[in-house]
Write a structure and sequence with these properties.
This protein is mainly alpha-helical and 64 residues long. It is 94% helix and 0% strand. The protein has one domain. This is CsbD-like domain-containing protein.
């Protein structure tokens, strides 16, 4: 399930970048801020996934 979560997070970041750029191009500050929010949320989730992966690796290291 980790791979799909990472893929969804990257898609959310990409969608956020697109919205942010569209907001800039059209002069719509609401759309730009919504895109920034999506991008940051996707990045935060990605960091969470990386922390879970690091914890799993540490756990596996001490099992042996």
């Amino acid at each position: 399930m980790g791979f799909l979560d990472k893929l969804k997070n990257k898609a959310q970041k990409a969608k956020g970048r697109g919205k942010e750029q569209a907001g800039r191009d059209s002069g719509d500050p609401y759309l730009e801020s919504e895109g920034r929010k999506d991008r940051v949320a996707g990045g935060a989730k990605q960091v969470g996934e990386q922390a879970k992966d690091a914890a799993k690796e540490a756990r596996d290291t001490f099992k042996r």
